């Protein structure tokens, strides 16, 4: 398993708050590192990226100041899902935007469950980089 | 062979087998009942029973290669053997001078055909045979013998034939309906498996496609030297995305079962794909 948190500078800043911070939860190492790099290098934002629900919980209060949270729905076999991550964030007072990203079909039970959540948007992989930019920058989706 | 074709062949084989057994057993029993008639020849019974035994042997030998045509042919030959035997023996029964219910075996034959015939044509021909031979035989009998027949004979056999024909059609239509339903169910199951495979394939491909798309964007931001190459890569990603979307068009045909929706199923798929990837890698080395 990778380190508890994979962030831009391999460290989570003391104060993660403001529109420049993006939380990304994704179990695929390659994609997680790619998005982290894309967000920081191209979109000029800072990214806190974790690979699992457990890693998210370890970071705890540090991530609650992010302006947007991008959650992969399926975080691995027999692992807590992105829906659990969503529930944890909301339960801990996270007020930012939450977006689900999924490679699953719209009819997959987890995706159907995510669709029932009123305040989170769902996007199907693959999304275009411009769409990711819109998500990160908080523009029109 | 298709499921439906296989069922039809097996059904025809079984029908012919039962008919041959009934011929052998039934004509042997008829001979035992007729042994008190001094002039009754044995050869019609022996001929029909031996034909029945021979057909049983043929069917057993061809059991693994059964076809509807074989079953129907055997059924028809069996019917002809019985009709020939009954044509000969019924004359002797009629001339005993003792009370006799005419053409019982023919009437029983009509009912048996209605219950067993593997195909409509074979069944109708057989019923017509069982109905026509008593009437034909009646006209060859001595007028004195004819006058000894119960009222309405030999025409009652036509009523049997009518009922037998209706029952035969009813039975075969029921079988055809069941086979059609089986075929539809099999097709639906195949479509479901295909939809499931497509959805899984799409699920599996989406994250790698996403990685390629983001890598392309990242490279585009880092260097301008690769623009033509990255443009081609981007077009390839668009094609792969279209393919993935095309695969998900079948997602509504896939009903998620409890086993499918668990994440274990995803892991199983990934393991399957990974093992295939390893196999291809080993082949390259």
Secondary structure topology:
The complex is a heterodimer of chains A (141) and B (285).
Chain A (H helix, E strand, L loop, with lengths): L5 E2 L10 E8 L3 H14 L3 E5 L2 H7 L6 E7 L9 H10 L5 E6 L6 H7 L4 E5 L4 H9 L4
Parallel strand pairs in A: 2-3, 2-4, 4-5, 5-6
Antiparallel strand pairs in A: 1-3
Chain B lengths: L2 H31 L9 H19 L6 H27 L9 H13 L3 H21 L2 H5 L8 H67 L4 H22 L9 H4 L1 H22 L1
Helix pairs in contact in B: 1-2, 1-3, 2-3, 3-5, 4-5, 4-7, 5-7, 7-8
Could you explain how this protein is built, in words?
The complex is a heterodimer of chains A (141) and B (285). Chain A is of the alpha/beta class. Chain A has a single domain, classed as Response regulator (Rossmann fold, 3-Layer(aba) Sandwich), CATH 3.40.50.2300. Helices cover 33% and strands 23% of the residues of chain A. Chain A has a six-stranded mixed sheet, sandwiched between helices. In chain A, strand 5 (97-102), helix 4 and strand 6 form a beta-alpha-beta unit. Residues 1-10 of chain A have low confidence and may be disordered. Chain B has ten helices and no strands. The model of chain B has no long low-confidence stretch (mean pLDDT 86). Chain B has two domains: 7-154, no CATH class; 189-284. Chain B is mainly alpha-helical and 285 residues long. Helix content of chain B is 81%, strand content 0%. In chain B, helix 1 runs antiparallel to helix 2 (43-61) and helix 4 runs parallel beside helix 7 (156-222). Chain A binds chain B through residues 28, 30-31, 34-35, 37-38, 41-42, 74, 76-79, 81, 103-110, 124-129, 132, and chain B through 199, 202-204, 206-207, 209-211, 213-218, 221-222, 237, 241, 244, 248, 251-252, 254, 256, 261, 263-264, 266-267, 270.
């Amino acid at each position: 398993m990778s380190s508890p948190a994979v962030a831009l500078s391999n460290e989570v800043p003391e104060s993660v708050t403001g529109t420049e911070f993006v939380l990304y939860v994704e179990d695929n190492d390659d994609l997680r590192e790619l998005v982290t790099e894309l967000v920081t290098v191209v979109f000029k934002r800072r990214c806190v990226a974790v690979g699992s629900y457990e890693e998210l919980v370890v970071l705890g209060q540090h991530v609650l100041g992010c302006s947007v949270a991008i959650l992969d729905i399926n975080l691995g076999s027999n692992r807590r899902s992105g829906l659990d991550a969503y529930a944890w964030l909301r339960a801990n007072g996270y007020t930012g935007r939450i977006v689900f990203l999924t490679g699953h079909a719209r009819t997959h039970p987890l995706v159907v469950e995510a669709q029932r959540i009123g305040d989170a948007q769902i996007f199907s992989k693959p999304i275009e980089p411009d769409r990711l930019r819109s998500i990160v920058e908080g523009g029109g989706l | 062979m298709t499921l439906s074709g296989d069922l039809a062949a097996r059904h025809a084989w079984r029908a012919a087998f039962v008919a041959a057994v009934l011929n052998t057993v039934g004509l042997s029993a008829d001979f035992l009942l007729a042994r008190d008639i001094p002039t009754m020849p044995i050869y019609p019974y022996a001929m029909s029973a031996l034909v029945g035994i021979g057909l049983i042997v043929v069917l057993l030998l061809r059991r693994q290669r059964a076809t509807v045509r074989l079953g129907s042919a055997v059924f028809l030959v069996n019917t002809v053997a019985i009709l020939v035997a009954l044509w000969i023996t019924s004359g002797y029964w009629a001339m005993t001078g003792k009370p006799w219910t005419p053409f019982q075996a023919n009437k029983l034959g009509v009912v048996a055909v209605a219950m067993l015939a593997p195909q409509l044509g074979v069944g109708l021909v057989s019923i017509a045979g069982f109905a026509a031979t008593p009437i034909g035989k009646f006209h060859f009998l001595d007028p004195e013998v004819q006058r000894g027949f119960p009222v309405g004979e030999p025409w009652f056999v036509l009523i049997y034939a009518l009922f037998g024909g209706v029952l035969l059609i009813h039975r075969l239509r029921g079988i055809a309906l069941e086979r059609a339903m089986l075929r539809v169910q099999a097709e639906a199951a195949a479509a479901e498996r295909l939809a499931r495979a497509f959805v899984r394939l799409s699920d599996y491909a989406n994250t790698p496609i996403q990685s390629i798309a983001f890598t392309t964007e990242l490279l585009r931001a880092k260097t301008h030297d690769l623009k033509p190459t990255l443009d081609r890569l981007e077009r390839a990603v668009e094609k792969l995305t279209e393919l993935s979307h095309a695969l998900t068009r079948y997602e509504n045909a896939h009903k998620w079962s409890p086993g499918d929706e668990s994440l274990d199923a995803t892991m199983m798929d990934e393991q399957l794909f990974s093992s295939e990837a390893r196999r291809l890698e080993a082949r390259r080395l």
